[in-house]
Design a protein that fits this description.
8 strands
Length: 244
């Protein structure tokens, strides 16, 4: 009986001169169909995805969710751990007075696009084109995932954006994308007073930028806190919609 496999590796971010742990999940479909290539999803805050011993609170339990998805919706997951004290800087597209370090988000995305993705595509059976390359994040990770989707669409054809912290960088909603990345954007009415309004603003910004309705899904849940429980619960629906 085939089963998914989780691998943990350490990589070097040359553009930032830092080491980082990545967590690679090869789903059951990877082993069930040995001649088939699979899409890849890069997820920020990787230590929160699989294991309660490394997660901030309850993990997303992605492995269990992936095991229950139909083979057609399964993909390779590359979870990239955050940099602890560097998280605020690495996930911010540009400098913000809230953080001591300058916004390094563009450098962090450069690492994913130019260093990490080529290695993943070389060593694993991936579908490397933009339509099969996805990025996902929550909170500040959601902010950077949205930024990547709307500024790096030549690489990321799909994105999952959970509870994005757009308030940290409002210009992220000033869009002029050359390509329209398919996006699943989710938040809860009860996680903050402004989240529902924030997601509505995101929808209007995307429509103003010419996004067709079939490229955008805005999901506003009635209940849910700003935490891993909410994001883990929405991982399956998000991946199903992006890969349908």
């Amino acid at each position: 009986m085939v089963s998914s496999q989780l691998f943990i590796e350490e990589v070097y971010i040359s553009v930032l001169k830092r080491k980082r742990t990545i967590r690679i999940l090869l789903p059951k479909a990877y082993y069930k169909f040995p001649d088939k290539r699979l899409p890849v999803m890069y997820i920020l805050d990787g230590q929160n995805l699989f294991d309660s011993s490394t997660s901030f609170g309850r993990p997303w339990y992605i492995r269990q969710v992936m095991d229950e998805l139909p083979y057609k919706n399964q993909c390779i997951i590359v979870g990239i751990d955050h940099g602890e004290k560097w998280r605020g800087s690495e996930y911010l597209p540009h400098h913000h007075h809230k953080f001591t370090h300058h916004g390094e988000g563009q450098h962090f995305l450069e690492f994913i696009i130019k260093e990490l993705k080529p290695k993943i595509d070389h060593h694993l059976r991936t579908l490397p084109d933009r339509e099969n390359t996805m990025i996902c994040g929550s909170s500040m990770g959601g902010l950077l995932a949205f930024y990547a989707a709307t500024r790096k669409g030549e690489t990321f054809g799909k994105a999952g954006v959970f509870s994005p912290s757009f308030w940290l960088y409002p210009p992220v909603l000033s869009l002029h994308p050359a390509l329209h990345t398919k996006m699943y954007i989710m938040g809860s009415r009860t996680e903050s007073n402004a989240m529902s309004h924030t997601l509505q603003k995101a929808y209007h910004a995307l429509k103003k930028a010419g996004y067709p309705d079939d490229k955008v899904r805005i999901v506003i849940k009635d209940k849910g806190k700003h935490n891993e429980i909410l994001w883990g619960q929405q991982f399956g629906p998000m991946l199903k919609w992006l890969t349908e």
